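Practice problem: predict the structure.
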Amino acid sequence: MPVPIKNALRPILVILLLASGACTEPQGNALRFGLSAGAVTLDPRYATDAVSHRINRLIYERLVDFDGNFHAVPRLARWKVLSPLHYRFTLGEKGRVFHDGRRLTAGDVRATYVSILDAGDISPHKAMLSGIEHIEVINEETIDFHLYVADPLFPGRLAIGILPEDLIDAGHPFHRQPVGSGRMKFLDWPGEDRLRLQRVSDGQIFEFITVRDSTVRVLKLLRGELDLVQNDVPVELLEWLKSKPDIVIETGRGDTFTYLGFNLRDPHVGRLIVRQAIASALDREAIIRHVLGKAARQAGALLPPDHWSGHPDLDGYKYDPERSRQLLKQAGYDQANPLRITYKTSNNPLRVRLATIIQYQLGQVGIGVDLQSYDWGTFYGDIKSGNFQMYSLSWVGLKMPDIFRYIFHSASVPPAGANRGYYNDEHADALIRNAEIRPRLEDMAKIYRELQAYLHKQLPYVPLWYEDNLLARRRNVTGYTLSADGNYDGLLSVERR
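Answer:
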């Protein structure tokens, strides 16, 4: 039986070869950015999906941002720690004009965060801000945040876009008609598959075009109907696209974390020895080389090693199929009593192919896998409700190490958090609590590294890889820079020659 990771998608290539003979340049001066899924909301207080977050980042300015090692750094404002419970933020001059002409003040900052805290449980960001006791406007440039408990990570929580106070009070529909002070302003959203923004600095118009089929996206790029596509390009087509004189392919290191998750209440995958057998059966290096085009690096923990609290020495379990077979035997599985598990994934073609390869590799050591793929809504609904045995997903754009509480603390099972596998471990809970009470980031980082090493042994997740970012662009489009978290900030400097 041939190894599936070496199978090429020849039918796709044939279709593209037949369809790419003629190229047409896009009409008008707009630069067209291809997406596999559109934004859900343009109100940053309620956005959770990656596309909405990345587009909102262009429209709205925020108090803080993050540097290359994920430390919080000033954006709209600098801050001083007046006491462990008292932070003072002072606004600078950049990004202080909303797109409707009014000036951004401390009152707008307060109104934005109060609207999140006072919105019941509607905003998904409320829990992250629940440590705020009250917010005090000192003057138009200065605002104080008073906390219930000390939180050395607090500045990094203030990365939500700022909205105008009077429009908040008026109940303005920001989700469809955003008003921010970012470097792009909203023009219109004429249909679910087409959103238009305008760069403030020079008036350049950008159209975000949703094309759900990856092959069609490539066709539109070849024909000039799209100018740029970030990620969401079939890996099998990369080398072929590189041969096209009008197309340029660029890659950059990314931090999107992909993993296998488990229902730890299950009598089979809930056993550590079974998860160890699964981890040892996976040839991640071969998958990265043959399927991901070397555009990933093996992962051993949720946070990348270059994160200020990441663990530099973890890269996951080694590929050892013989050890996997031995572990399965110790666990009581053999030909007479084989292990069989159900594996859920989305119906995204790349995710299905990756899942098929994982199914094959697990089958080589005697683990039978029933693969089930669903549309995103059904799949994600099953994961959130705990209706799974094993699944694969990715975490995108992680910045703060307290994500470990949200994902792994025993009190964070849905709907209280994202502990969807029902991981319950007293030692992990204690490490999370101990990290959170440390007043110095250095001490906090040390405990989070200890936690990651412990999770590496316990395997509530099997870490797979950190996926790189990829850009496919028309050759006459230049100046785009890829970011590790996959944001769209490169559009702020891109231009068509």
